[in-house]
Amino acid sequence: MKKARIIYNPTSGKELMKRFLPDVLNELENMGYETSAFATTAKKNSACKEARRVGVLDFDLVVAAGGDGTINEVVNGVAPLNKRPKLAIIPAGTTNDYARALKIPRTNPVDAIRILHKKQTVKMDIGQADEKYFVNIAAGGGLTELTFEVPSNLKKTFGYLAYLTKGAEILPRIQPRNIRITYDEGVYEGEASMFFAGLTNSVGGFEAIAPDAKFDDGKFSLLIVKRANVFEIMRMIAAVLNGGKHIEDPKIIYTKTANIKVEVLNPNERLMINLDGEYGGDAPIEFCNLHQHIEFFANLDAISDDAVLGDQEQEEIAQKYIHELERFL
Predict the structure, then answer these.
(1) Which of 46, 138, 193, 218 is most buried, taking the most CB atoms under 10 A from its CB?
(2) Is 207 marked active-site?
């Protein structure tokens, strides 16, 4: 039999996986996988080390069950290996950006694992920053620092609302940095409020930050927001919600690139880097796209649907954000 290992975060998603683990195990056994499970601990890189261990042992499948942080750790465990297992996702976090991008069901772990019945996979690009890897986004500046300011207990209890409230609070005090960003087709040097280097179209629950992102083309979708005041940033957010029209804004540079170097020009300024929602070090830093590096199970039938802003949840998120923002302006 093929061997599978479920690496799950027992505290994610109001401990959702604890309740559904027996059913998930049963589903995988019925698909022909000899399956075992590992609950992550509070120790640093718990999921990463376990993913590396089972990858070295030639497991056929690793299932990352948790939030985007758990997926990131699992990828960091297997990415350096010459022979890598296939990966599957059971979303159980706050934003679940990667599951959104791959169109994995986000309300029931059993529905998520049943995607494997379709036998649909995609060889996904991932990013490398020094010795760290990321699957969805590298970012710096402005709202990208939200993750560092929202306490983990608030994320767990209030989910999106914790981010929305903190975002509305810090947006008026966003300060641009004087930076240099070097990419394949050029260089931007000057003040910037924030930048994103995306591998999918889903960032922070919004599915049009990089509206034409490709999973496997070997390119990041690089978005640089030049110096912008709070009202200009609000306008850009509205354009994101209006089908990704923000990329037409004159204060935005939007391009495709396989390599990126970010430097801070003022030695007294610090630019913290966000990798998949977690602190990933400070600039200067370089990002490299690893083309089709890891094979993920995905719901390819749904990914072909390009209507990414049509669901009710997306509209509710937007309205909550605008409401919270107005409270602080």
Answers:
(1) 138
(2) no
